[in-house]
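Board notes (copied after class):
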Amino acid sequence: MSFSTTLIFVVIFCVQSLAAMLQNGFMVTVLGREWLQSQALPAGDMIVACLAASRFCLHGLAILNNFLNFFMFWYKNNYLGIVWDFVNTVTFWFTSWLAVFYCVKISSFSHPIFSWMKWRISRSVPKLLLASLIFGGLSAISSLTGTTIAFQMMACGNCTLTYRGKVFYGYFYRYHALLMWVTPFFLFLLSIILLMLSLYWHLEQMRYHRPRPHDHSTQAHTTALKSLTFFLIFYTSYVLLLLISTTKAVTIYDSWHWAWEVITYTGISLHSTILVLGSPKSRRALKKFSCLCVASS
């Protein structure tokens, strides 16, 4: 890849990441202000606010880590990647809890377990968010331990130990990613499948009854399903690309590195846009901001 093409992808990555940070920062500001003013926030908005905050940090760390590793050849410290690993793991769990919340709140299963979860889910959200931070901390500790062992093996000066350290780090990081990232992803998939089954069951029930002109349950199912379908596509692409990156198919000095980074972060950037446009509170804040801009001009 030529230098000019690489530079184009660097610019695209920076613009994309800064736009995502702006969107997520906007959501954090809107929901955070409401949280401070009313001293309370609906459980769903609480998850969205935490997810937006974690993604804001994730995109910022992605920019910082990529530039330090790519442009500063003396920068050999990988410990900033551990902070990224913590934020990324927390973001994965926040994403999964958002899907679980949609599933439990909107699904119409009559099983006692779902009835109990529907009654408990809103009050359990703060505990789930705290659990996400704990999982992120465990992920960071695991990553720090593996990185320290591998670096010590590679720094001893022995060629055999250096090679074994590189091999150890490669295998360790892959298994670490599978455990810390794929686990919440399967929870997310399970939530979507259950929500689809709930929608199918509800539509089957409606066949035997006279359809109402405004079926709010079906509308809620359809709206959530559309949102989660986009979410599934973007989230799946992000997970798969991250897992592929653990194989070192594209290294930091590869000519396609910046194109790979653009593709990897496109999914969650687009989903941030959907969250902003899909939230009534964010849309109202955008309208107010637009009116202020027009009035001031």
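Comment from the instructor: The mean pLDDT is 80. The helical segments are 3-38, 43-71, 79-106, 112-154, 159-207, 216-245, 257-278, 280-296.
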